[in-house]
Structure formats: structure tokens, C-alpha cells
Design brief:
single chain; 8-stranded mixed β-sheet; Rossmann fold; alpha/beta; 17% strand; 12 helices; NAD-dependent epimerase; two-stranded parallel ribbon; NAD; NAD(P)-bd_dom_sf
Length: 338
């Protein structure tokens, strides 16, 4: 298939591109390569896909991969409506996988306008181009953050999600509402995926796995919020990608519902203290711990019910925390030459 993957230089986007290419699909990757975290990591991911850094730096220019004949990349922001329209016109995509977004719960308190531009205006441009260019299926990233102050666990997609506690979460809930409207009005399929705490090789530097490992190796204290009384449904990247690609590859049936939402997680909840202990064992380092109160916008516990995704797509999250952390640490040491 001919597939557009946005956020291609991001953590999940890079892995999804690689998996699709390895399966023989034609992929165009898009990313604005912003400076939310060091661009060097984003360029390094693209280099794994055969895109040279010097060429990837240029805006609005298609760059062909030197490794994958069926991969090309364009540096472009979703909010650039004219360039987005041109891209859709030229490439005649069948499927769009929108993983591009301004990420981060805490950063949304510092720079809220970035979330409106990318996650609201940008997502509107994605939806409108899907409508005008007759895209068969839009698969897009939502977030477990939409559950907000929900106390019932595990989280189910039938739960009320009307109480987000960060602008990031509100923007993701808005994406789901916008997608519902476009599916209802224009009849194309949209599938939203509520990701739960994804970790693994090539992960984001603002996520707990990366922050803890980096601090421990440097001998710096790690920051533990809510005095360690937190639980997360940590989900290994390979399990996430497996689910995303299965959804992309499944043919769209005419008689199925056009709008769907799924949780995509590990179907388990792990105490943050246990997660830290596993990293300590893998590094053979006892962490220096700085206990702090709950951060604004944070939630105490996440846990995904993924029964719908299992039954419909045979989704199989099966990577244990110990295996996932081991693989991340191996990558981290190799990438940073430790």
C-alpha cells in the first residue's frame, strides 16, 4: 500500500515506518523535526531509514532513502495547509497514519500554543485532506491522557473522558471528536489509538525510562513524583508497532463502523517503584532518589483494557518489563557509547 506516516522522525513513527517498509509497503514519512527535544536523536532515527541528515534539514523537499527504495521523507509541519494539500495531490495515499503531534503533558503547561497549532490546526488539515483526497483509512494517535481524573481501572474506551487535566489531553480528546465528525459526515474510516506509556529503544528523552537511565548512569538523582505512589501501563515499542501495523494492513470493509477508538497498552499496571528497581538491577546501580509531590496534569494510575483490540486485530502485548528495560539499556549504552 501507499502510506503516509506523520511524525516519522519521532519515537513511535520511526518504528512504524521501519516495520511497514520491512513488510514491503511504500511509505512517505513526514515530520517538522521541532526542538521539543534534541533534533540529533530525530535525525539519527531518520538515518536508520536511509535519510541523510543534511538533506532532511531542508523544509518542504522530498528526500529519497538510500536504504529503502520505497521510502521518502519530507520535512513539513501539519499546519502548513497549502503544502499538505500539494503532498496529498502528488502521492495519492491510500492510508494515512497520523502520529505527528506536540507531545508531553507537562510541556503543555509551559507552551500551550504549540498544542493548538500542531494538535488542533494540524489535525484538522489531516482530516480535511483525507476527505478531499478520498483516503480509505486514517489511523491516528490519541493518548491515555484523555482519561484524566478517571479513577476506575482498567480504563475502557466506553468510560467517560470529559474531564482532561492538561491541554495535551484536551487536544487529544478534541482529535477524537473531530475524527468522529468527519467519519460521520464524509464516510471514511478513522481509528484512534489511545497509547499507554510507550518505552523502548530510540525512545523520547522526556519519558521516565530515558530520564531514569540517563540520571543513574551519570550519578544524578532521579525525580520521583507523588512520592513514588504512581502506577503506569508501561508498553514496549514492539508491541505497540505490532498493533498499529495490524490495523493499517487490515482491509477496510464497507459494512463496518467508520469510527473506532481503541486502547493500545500492555493490559497491566506496574508500580513506578518496581519499574525503577528493574532499571537499577539492569544497570547494577542504586538510584539516588528525590521524592517530589504530584505534578500538575499528572494522573496517579493508568491501566489499559485492550480486549477490543485483541478480539478484532489479535493484538498480543507480550514483552515483559524486564525484557523491555534490558533492550532499552542495551540501545542507550550503544547509542551514547557508554
Amino acid at each position: 500500500m501507499n502510506i503516509l506516516v506523520t511524525g516519522a522522525a519521532g519515537f513511535i513513527g520511526y518504528h512504524v515506518c521501519k516495520s511497514l517498509l520491512d513488510k514491503g509497503h511504500r511509505v512517505v514519512g513526514l515530520d517538522n523535526i521541532n526542538d521539543y527535544y534534541p533534533r540529533s536523536l530525530k535525525f539519527s532515527r531518520l538515518e536508520q531509514l536511509g535519510i541523510e541528515e543534511d538533506k532532511a534539514k531542508n523544509f518542504n523537499t522530498i528526500v529519497e532513502s538510500g536504504t529503502y527504495p520505497d521510502f521518502s521523507f519530507i520535512r513539513l509541519g501539519l499546519e502548513d495547509s497549502a503544502s499538505m494539500d500539494k503532498l496529498f495531490n502528488e502521492h495519492k495515499f491510500e492510508i494515512v497514519c497520523n502520529l505527528a503531534a506536540q507531545a508531553g503533558v507537562r510541556y503543555s503547561l509551559e507552551n500551550p500554543s504549540a498544542y493548538i497549532e500542531s494538535n488542533i490546526v494540524g489535525f484538522f488539515n489531516i482530516l480535511d485532506n483525507c476527505k478531499r483526497h478520498e483516503i480509505k483509512h486514517l489511523v491516528y494517535a490519541s493518548s491515555s491522557s484523555v482519561y484524566g481524573l478517571n479513577k476506575k481501572v482498567p480504563f475502557e474506551t466506553t468510560d467517560n473522558v470529559d474531564h482532561p487535566i492538561s491541554l495535551y489531553a484536551a487536544s487529544k480528546k478534541s482529535n477524537e471528536l473531530m475524527a468522529h465528525t468527519y467519519s460521520h459526515l464524509y464516510g471514511f474510516k478513522t481509528t484512534g489509538l489511545r497509547f499507554f506509556t510507550v518505552y523502548g529503544p530510540w525512545g523520547r528523552p522526556d519519558m521516565a525510562m530515558f530520564l531514569f537511565t540517563n540520571a543513574m548512569l551519570k550519578g544524578d538523582p532521579i525525580k520521583i513524583f507523588n512520592n513514588g505512589d504512581l502506577e503506569r501501563d508501561f508498553t514496549y515499542i514492539d508491541d505497540i508497532v505490532n498493533g498499529v501495523v495490524r490495523i493499517i494492513e487490515k482491509p477496510v470493509a464497507d459494512d463496518e463502523p467508520k469510527y473506532k477508538i481503541f486502547n493500545i497498552g500492555n493490559n497491566d499496571s506496574v508500580k513506578l517503584t518496581d519499574f525503577i528497581e528493574t532499571i537499577e538491577k539492569e544497570l547494577n546501580i542504586e538510584a539516588k532518589k528525590e521524592y517530589l509531590p504530584m505534578q500538575p496534569g499528572d494522573v496517579k494510575k493508568t491501566w489499559a483494557n485492550v480486549d477490543d483490540l485483541v478480539s478484532e486485530y489479535n493484538y498480543e502485548p507480550n514483552t515483559s518489563i524486564s525484557v523491555g528495560i534490558k533492550r532499552f539499556v542495551e540501545w542507550f549504552k550503544a547509542y551514547y557509547k557508554i
